[in-house]
Amino acid sequence: LARSRDIFHHSEARKKLLVWACGLVINIIYVALVTVALGLGKASVIAAFNGVGLVSMALLSHFFLNEIIGRNELIGIGTIILGTGILGVFGGIEIQELNYDVSSFVWYNLAVMGPMGVLVLFTLLNKYSQAAIIFSLTAGVLGGISQLYQKIFMSHQLGEPSLWELFKDPYFLVFMVTSNGAFVVIQVAYQFGKAVTVVPLVSSFTILAPVLGAVILFGEPFSLMQGFGIGMIIGGIVLLSAFQQPHRTPEPRSSL
């Protein structure tokens, strides 16, 4: 009996490792595809399409993770999807040549990451109160900032750069730190909240951070409809956050 329990635990550990490895591979593919897209289009538009994955997330979390999706969560997810669609459609024109100031990047990073650091400190000092929301937002901000750095180091490359040339580019190094940091933080968020809560919050700020950053740092145009889309995304975040239900692991179904 003890041996069978050991085999079961080892099997569960292998499954978890396999799932994590698959997630890592998919994340690498995602980063590669976004890198190509950012080389072809506008940062604020590319970022907006992060919301497309919310549809598949909602379906997968319900059918495979047995997570209950309430009415408020559905409305919140739908509002975020509609907002991201508006951002994508009314994204404006592409700036052919990036003009940016390094000091502006430093101040922008402090402006968006400073509040996240305060919130993380708050949840650590208050027995992980609102941990799912706070870690999700932090992961989203890190992922969004990484796309801005991604856009810059892609603009530096002519032809097919070598790996050594990439590692000599400080913007590439910051991109590696922020993108991998986002992957780690979102794993922490999953420990405290449901996927239907975590993923929309991460996606929302992965959209908002580069959209606003592209306008502030690169001078990309910003329209009234883009502002309306951002407002809808924020409204969806409020719905998901205000009506968040406690995270519960589904109980196994009885065979009787």
Q: Quick check: average pLDDT?
A: 75
Content-based structural category? mainly alpha
Q: Low-confidence segments, ≥5 residues, pLDDT <50?
A: 248-256
The 3D shape can be described as globular
How would a textbook summarize the main sheet?
A: none
Strand content: under 5%
Radius of gyration: 20 Å
Task: Give an account of the 3D structure.
It is a single chain. By secondary structure, the protein is mainly α. Residues 248-256 have low confidence and may be disordered. The protein contains ten helices and no strands. It is globular, with a radius of gyration of 20 Å.
Structure, briefly:
This protein is mainly α and 256 residues long.
Could you name the key traits of this structure?
256 residues; mainly alpha; 10 helices; 76% helix; disordered C terminus
How are the SSEs placed, and which strands pair?
Elements lengths: L1 H39 L2 H6 L4 H11 L7 H19 L12 H24 L5 H26 L6 H5 L2 H21 L4 H24 L5 H19 L14
Helix pairs in contact: 1-6, 3-9, 4-9, 4-10, 5-6, 6-8, 6-9, 9-10
